[in-house]
């Protein structure tokens, strides 16, 4: 016989229940229920982990693809920012650098007013640190510097709030503020033509507007908000790299901010949600796996006479134990593998499925003014699949030990006497 005897008998027991050859229909039902629970638990956990991976990827590649990894500022108005940019870009830890002038302003169109972050950019350098050019045309960048009619590029969320489209006009207002000398600066107002509306699918659509460097400087009154945006080689080390660069700059009054200050809470929330949801779904898998215990306990009770006959025919305690371990392992293996296949399939189509449901019912489940992105991302990682499938099978295997030990302790004489 090429097959080990315990595995052969255990698989025959499982097969007999599924074919209805055994009178214990309840045992077969509970066994199937355990397998279904394991399938759903494994599949659900793979989908959840893929969605969390998707949110993590969108933060790194889309949100931080548009926004810089770090920005170095100086409150002085007489800084040669082109020279500072070139000096910072020469650092081996920095991939690219671009000058920017940031102004917190109010956008007004008719009676609609909304706050925004206006960034004055140099179109020739901004694309080195940002992938905003994936959402904005080159013609729109060129139109920003139109002296006769200054242009502005709005995020889709801002345009929807103001009720404006490309080609229309709006005003930017910078409220009065306190200057570095303690005096008050008057509010400043400027009109712009909307040359493009970008849709990145992220929360930046709700707050970001782009204009030319000179226009941003004029709105800021020539003071504050200027800096150099950086894209570094190691995103998670951005804070350390920024501090090293600040220490190497020759003059005082430079200070900086990195992505962990602006989006660090979002990153931590994604990681915490991934861990908590993963733990909850793992508990679901554990519950489904340990349903195998009740299944095998009922099988052991039902097979007392068979166990006794096997013992009298010379089967050892180890062989009896392995017989029922094999039966439980089959349930765990089938449940984990089928659940893994379902989870892989669901992870690959969940983004398109949710988008289809939104289109079908005319609703939006995720909005960028509440969530980091306005769609459900998914990124399947094979290491997660292997981990989840392996954990599901291992838990099922551990769940077989108790009933298998009970089966190996059945006394032949007592079992056969009770059958009479």
TrEMBL record:
Recorded superkingdom = Bacteria
Keyword annotations of the record: Cell membrane, Lipoprotein, Membrane, Transmembrane, Transmembrane helix, Transport
Q: Where in the cell is it found?
A: Cell membrane
Q: What is its main location?
A: membrane
Give all residue intervals belonging to the MacB-like periplasmic core domain. 31-220
Note the topology in the membrane. Multi-pass membrane protein
Q: Name one GO biological process term.
A: lipoprotein transport
Coiled-coil stretches noted in the UniProt entry, renumbered to this chain = none
Q: Where is the ABC3 transporter permease C-terminal domain?
A: 279-412
Membrane spanning residue stretches? 26-52, 276-301, 321-342, 386-405
- Cellular compartments per GO CC: plasma membrane protein complex
> In the UniProt record, does the keyword Aminoacyl-tRNA synthetase occur?
no
Q: Which PANTHER family match?
A: LIPOPROTEIN-RELEASING SYSTEM TRANSMEMBRANE PROTEIN LOLE
Which family does this protein fall into?
A: Belongs to the ABC-4 integral membrane protein family. LolC/E subfamily.
What's this protein's name?
Lipoprotein-releasing system permease protein
Q: Which organism encodes this protein? A: Microbulbifer yueqingensis
């Amino acid at each position: 016989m090429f097959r080990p005897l315990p595995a052969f008998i255990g698989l025959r027991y499982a097969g007999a229940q599924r074919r209805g050859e055994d009178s214990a229909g309840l045992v077969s039902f509970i066994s199937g229920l355990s397998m279904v629970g394991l399938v759903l638990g494994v599949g659900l956990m793979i989908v959840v982990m893929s969605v969390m991976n998707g949110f993590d990827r969108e933060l790194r590649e889309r949100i931080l693809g548009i926004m810089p990894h770090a920005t170095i500022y100086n409150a002085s108005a007489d800084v040669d920012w082109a020279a500072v940019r070139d000096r910072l870009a020469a650092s081996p830890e920095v991939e690219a650098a671009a000058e920017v002038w940031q102004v917190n302003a109010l956008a007004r169109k008719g009676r609609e007013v909304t706050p925004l972050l206006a960034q004055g950019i140099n179109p020739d350098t901004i694309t080195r640190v940002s992938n905003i050019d994936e959402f904005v045309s080159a013609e729109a960048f060129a139109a920003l510097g139109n002296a006769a009619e200054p242009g502005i590029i709005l995020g889709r969320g801002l345009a929807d709030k103001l009720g404006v489209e490309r080609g229309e006009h709006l005003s930017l207002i910078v409220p009065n503020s306190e200057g570095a000398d303690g005096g008050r600066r008057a509010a400043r107002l400027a009109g712009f033509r909307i040359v493009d509306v970008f849709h990145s699918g992220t929360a930046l659509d709700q707050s970001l507007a782009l204009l030319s460097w000179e226009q941003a400087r004029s709105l800021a009154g020539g003071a504050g908000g200027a800096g150099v945006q950086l894209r570094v080689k190691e995103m998670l080390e951005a804070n350390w790299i920024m501090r090293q660069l600040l220490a190497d700059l020759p003059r005082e009054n430079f200070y900086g901010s990195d992505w962990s200050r602006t989006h660090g809470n979002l990153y931590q929330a994604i990681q915490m949600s991934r861990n908590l949801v993963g733990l909850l779904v793992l508990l679901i898998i554990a519950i489904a796996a340990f349903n195998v215990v009740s299944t095998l306990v009922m099988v052991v009770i039902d097979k007392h006479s068979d166990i006794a006959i096997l013992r009298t025919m010379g089967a050892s305690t180890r062989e009896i134990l392995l017989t029922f371990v094999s039966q439980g392992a089959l349930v765990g293996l089938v449940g984990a593998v089928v659940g893994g296949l379902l989870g892989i399939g669901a992870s690959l189509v969940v983004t398109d499925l949710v988008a289809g449901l939104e289109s079908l019912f005319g609703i939006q489940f995720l909005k960028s003014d509440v969530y980091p992105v306005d769609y459900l991302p998914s990124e399947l990682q094979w290491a997660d699949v292997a981990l989840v499938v392996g954990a599901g099978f291992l838990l099922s295997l551990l769940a077989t030990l108790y009933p298998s030990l009970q089966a190996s302790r059945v006394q032949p004489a007592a079992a056969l006497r009770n059958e009479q």
